[in-house]
Specification:
It is a single chain. By secondary structure, this protein is α/β, with parallel strands linked by helices. It contains nine helices and eight strands. It is 38% helix and 16% strand. It comes from Syntrophomonas wolfei.
């Protein structure tokens, strides 16, 4: 199955990425992708950029090398209330897509299953968040069924992260559980590279195999179609309007 988009990509701005946005767009074009999301790390990650960087993403062309470029962030879940390390005004006014997940050294330490699940479900309820990233990280154990059911209820996507099999030892089993639960509940998934260098953009073979083994259908994969992504993000923008009007 060929995916049209990679929605989780890091640049040199993340502090531990190795490619520029242009290099990423060039490779994405060569690989036939129609869309990419630039999702550098949120403010609490060591080496992350200042929030000015995220507001200045408006200077990016909407299309580079024939590839649509989404302006995004991989934010860090900070607490049990699902808050993330990005100002709401930046997420609402400057970014197209917000990914969120747990990371070490960002203010949220690995806790027990109950608290981690509470925090992740709260992040799913956060109206600015679109995708929960690498939820199969064994450093932050959670209740898989509860998280997938929340994602289904709030129309959020659960990520199957291709890099997890390399950089997060022990992820295979938990990621498999997420894929099977997503299939069971017909929840939305996003299959991404989490590339930190341009050559890995669009590389998702391990995560794709996991999805196919679980029986996940094409209709469940958010980034199987750039049009599907546009419709999904548009739907969420409509849901946020009442939130912004109430502020």
């Amino acid at each position: 199955m060929k995916l049209e988009a990679d929605l989780h990509i890091h640049t040199t701005a993340s502090g531990h990425g190795y490619s520029t946005i242009k290099e990423i767009a060039d490779i994405a074009s060569e690989k036939g992708l129609k869309m990419i999301a630039i999702t550098d790390h949120g403010l609490k990650m060591p080496g992350a950029p200042h929030w000015y960087y995220f507001t200045n993403l408006i200077s990016l062309p909407r299309v580079m090398q024939g590839v649509e470029v989404l302006r995004g962030v991989e934010a860090n879940i900070l607490d049990l209330e699902g808050n993330v390390d990005m100002p709401e005004i930046v997420m609402s006014d400057y970014l197209d897509i917000v990914l969120a997940g747990f990371h070490d050294e960002t203010g949220y330490s690995g806790r027990g299953v109950e608290e981690n699940t509470q925090a992740m479900v709260a992040a799913i309820k956060n109206p600015y968040v679109h995708i929960i990233v690498h939820p199969g990280n064994p450093r932050f154990p959670i209740d898989v069924e509860q998280v997938v059911l929340a994602a289904k209820q709030y129309n959020k996507a659960i990520e199957l992260n291709n890099s997890s099999f390399v950089v997060r030892p022990g992820s295979q089993s938990l990621c498999s559980q997420f894929a099977k639960a997503a299939k069971k509940h017909n929840a939305l998934v996003s299959i991404n590279s989490d590339a930190h260098i341009c050559y890995n953009v669009g590389e998702n073979a391990k995560a794709m195999d996991l999805a196919l083994d679980a029986g996940i259908r094409n209709s469940q994969i958010l980034n199987s179609s750039s049009r599907k992504i546009d419709e999904y993000l548009s739907w969420h923008r409509q849901q946020i309007k009442p939130v912004l009007q109430a502020q």
